[in-house]
Amino acid sequence: VEVNYYWQNLSEISVRNSTIECADGYQYQLYTAYKDKDSKIKTVTTSSTYPQTYIKTSALKKHNFYKVRVRAYALNSKNEKMYGGWSSWKYVSPQPDVTKKQKVKKGIKIKWDKINGADNYVVYVSTKKDSGYKKFQTTGKNSTTITKYGKNKLKSGKTYYFYVVAQKKVDNKYQSGAAGNATKRWSMTCLLYTSP
User: Are the C-beta atoms of residues 121 and 161 closer than 8 Å to each other?
Assistant: First the structure.
């Protein structure tokens, strides 16, 4: 199962999964993933064999982690639903918004929204808006100073693009909260200060 889009302004996510042969439909469940005890938010059952649905609910908050799972069903001779097993959980959160960016002596300092349930944040940097992103840093804080692009230090006068992805630790593995490709990019022209 994959969450390929998360529309914050619509309080809606798009969920896709692999096709199950002979399935007559699918059932999806959305749970919280930012509390001590996760709780179910919504169940959506489709009668379509196309393995995709949209889960829309006002319970989807901007700064929280969630998880979703899916199972297929087939109809028997009595038109009753016979369910298969649940998929593994897919974790998802909105992309953190960069709320502050400024030029500092070592590079570009940024700060972003905290996501409830996140354990880490991964910062990506590129010299192009839509490609070439490289991981700069993984941090437990909601701010950092970008000093490098790949192995190279930032160059004064050059524009850099960056975005942040939240991560949640589940069973000693970090799950990315990115829904498909990150859609928001921020940029800033670096101005490195040098001593006279």
Answer: no
DSSP symbols for the chain: -EEEEEETTTTEEEEE----TT--EEEEEEEE-SSSS--EEEEEE---SSSEEEEE-TT--TTB-EEEEEEEEEE-TTS-EEE-PPPPPEEE-PPPPEEEEEEETTEEEEEE---BT--EEEEEEESSSSS--EEEEEESSSEEEE-EETTEEPPTT-EEEEEEEEEEEETTEEEE---SS----EEEE-------
Task: Give one DSSP letter per residue of 150-180, joined into a string.
Answer: TTEEPPTT-EEEEEEEEEEEETTEEEE---S
Reported as a pLDDT band with limits 50, 70 and 90, residue 192 is: low
Full-model pTM: 0.87
**Rounded distance between C-alpha atoms, residue 111 and residue 55, angstroms:** 30
Block residue for tokens 């409830």: 116
CA distance 39 to 175: 19
pLDDT at residue 49 above 60?
Answer: yes
Q: What angle do CA 71, 73, 77 make, to 5 degrees?
A: 165
- Give the Cα separation of 75 and 82 in Å (integer): 6
Whether 144 and 165 have beta carbons less than 8 Å apart is answered as no
